[in-house]
Amino acid sequence: MSQYPILGDESIMSKKKHGTSDAPVQKELRWKCNNETADSVCNFNRHYAEHSGYFLETSFLNENNEGKEITFYDSVTGKPLFIAPKGRTWKEFVDESKAHGWPSFRDEEVVWENVRALGDGEAVSLTGTHLGHNLPDKKGNRYCINLCSVAGKPQDE
What is the superkingdom listed in this entry's lineage (predicted)? Predict the structure, then answer.
């Protein structure tokens, strides 16, 4: 039995000052992600997502074509949530993400000190940001994540 995902309880997503978080999303998100979409998905949503392929409409792929590891930060808090690609190539990461319609991460790419999966598969930050869902496939856990949820800038910027 795998040690992942690390499960959290429903209290993580309890009502806070701004939906399920203490604050709205950062004012300027990376990759030209739309703030209104991001705030809705991150803080006032438990089941839905940005539309399939949204990440392809942003500058994400154009700004990351060197294939180096990228740290994805919480759009509300700026805490690191995912680092990818790990254990696979940039092309494999992009191909899998394109096939599923959202950036898709694997267990080794999750920053577990800041991320949890709830019993229904919802992936969330420990501060209450809705990230997406764990949709396991034949390779294992696959975290299908909204780009607008992980387009924040590091908290020390």
Answer: Eukaryota
